[in-house]
Amino acid sequence: MIVLGLDPGYAIVGYGAIETNRGRHKMACYGAITTPAGMEMSRRLLEISRDMRTLLEQIQPAAVAVEELFFNTNITTGIQVAQARGVILAACAERGLEPVSYTPSQVKQGVVGYGKAEKKQVMEMTRQILGLKAVPKPDDAADALAIALCHANAAGSLLRLR
Questions:
Q1: How far apart are CA 103 and CA 118, in angstroms?
Q2: How far is the first Cα of the chain from the last one, in angstroms, to the nearest whole number?
Q3: Is residue 51 among the annotated active site residues?
Q4: How many CB atoms lie within 10 A of CB 5?
Q5: Most exposed of 79, 135, 148, 162 (fewest Cβ within 10 Å)?
């Protein structure tokens, strides 16, 4: 089964897909959808939407996991990221996919086993679990792979309970 993890943003949308089978995970692909600085927000959202449709067509995921937004002090940035997240969710819905959302602490818990783990720890554990030589770049792609792993682990647990 292919699980696609997404780290939403309006400048960079990180994505990471893993193949998961009976608790074993393998990296399928990762990268980022980017939009140029200074571009009108409506154009950025359109570009994200188009690129998401292409990505979903290419990867054909069975499941999608998206990081839940964490609002810090900059409300304007938070609103813009929320708009991009909405476009991402709509692109998934268009393909009949129902993305599952995870908070940053749930991702940390799901990958490292500790909800307050450092970002570095999550990236290193993601690298180890997937057997990669280096932590993927950009960080948004590494985060997306961690989100995919979190979902694969959570979904696997649910399947075992049934």
A1: 14
A2: 18
A3: no
A4: 31
A5: 162
pLDDT of residue 73: 67
Which candidate in 7, 47, 51, 143 is catalytic?
Answer: 7
- Coil, helix or strand for 71? coil
- pLDDT beyond 80 at 99: yes
Burial of 135 (0-12, 13-18, 19+ CB in 10 A): middle
pLDDT band, very low/low/confident/very high, at 161 (cuts 50, 70, 90): very low
Share of the chain above pLDDT 70, in %: 93
Task: For the chain, list the domains and their CATH numbers.
Answer: 2-161 (3.30.420.10)
Active site residue 139: no
Identified catalytic residue from 19, 40, 47, 67: 67
Assess contact for 107 and 31: CB atoms under 8 A.
Answer: no
- Catalytic, 67? Answer yes
Q: Which of 40, 51, 98, 140 is catalytic?
A: 140
Angle, in degrees to the nearest 10, between helices 139-161 and 104-112: 70
pTM: 0.93
